[in-house]
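Problem 12. The chain below contains 271 residues. Write out its predicted structure in token notation.
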Amino acid sequence: MVSPMIQTFVVVTVFTVIMIYLVYLGYFDTVHTEIGRKFYAERYSAKWITVLPPWLNMPYNTFVNLGYIVVGALYCAKTSVWLHVKQITLSDSVLFYTFNIMATFYGAIQAVRILTQFHRAAVLDQWYTLPFFMWVFVWACHLDSGIGIKGMGLWMTVSLLSYCLTLVHKHGFEIALALHILFAVYGAISIYRKFPIKKAQQPFVWALIFCAGFVFLKLADLELPKLNPMFEKISGHFLSKIADILQIYCVNQYFEILTLHKNNVQIKKSK
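Solution.
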């Protein structure tokens, strides 16, 4: 029998390949993206010149994406352990696996954008961001009353199609992202009301802080070096990715606490 993690990996891979193919076909070539070194504050430090190849001219912004892979792999491993000892259900594991396999892919996609500075890589980076936030809403619906395959498919389809806003408005991505963040926060709050566990408060608050930090630091990337030259190395964009990785970690932690609590309650009721 194929493990749930492998099955989920195949599904996420298929959808990722479809997204890559649609971007490759040029459907989003008119979308506004920020491409070029002028949009990044990080400058190629002299100490890297003798160590790294010239094409790796933003090492901090490149290597930070390994953080997504580490967090994703960590929680995939934890999910496998929980499933093995029956602390979570098979459907619960699918939610964890999907979110964290997406995280590992997202790290690779962002690294490709930084290294190539290709428009289509930037488009894929933007587009792939949206399902992350929608998955938080789907996750909350799953814990609340169950959502099913059809429900998951519906909301993820809506999420993916929302990127078409970029075709009709210059700031279509920002509008779609803002709506996704609202959906994610609403879902997280609604499920907390059903399972008001004090232990879950801290990761929820930190996830909000890191989300706000991610947005602020990215927008302030070019302004921060005016305050201190240090931000030409440890740039706002680099720090925003640190915040984003920690946000993903806290979301995992939040749903870990709620999922384990829900299953413990159900086990006690069945006895």
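Discussion. The mean pLDDT is 91. Students who got a different answer should revisit the alignment rule from Section 12.3.
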